[in-house]
Write a structure and sequence with these properties.
Length: 64
């Protein structure tokens, strides 16, 4: 249980560090990424970017 918590925590930290780089590369601006304003706050749901990064990670994992 602690191992999974640590893995999820490290993955979230890595993603938060790489977010500015990924946005410069075009991730987060794909056609399936949703961005809307609700209750005075901007919400962002990166559906297409998540799918693309998941497929990339699966491909790398399959090669290793």
């Amino acid at each position: 249980m602690i191992r999974w918590f640590l893995v999820v925590f490290l993955a979230l930290m890595l993603i938060s560090w790489l977010t500015p780089l990924l946005q410069r590369l075009g991730f987060g601006k794909l056609p399936g990424d949703l961005r809307f304003r609700l209750f005075g706050r901007e919400w962002f749901v990166p559906l297409a970017s998540t799918l693309l990064l998941s497929m990339l990670a699966a491909g790398i994992a399959r090669l290793i």
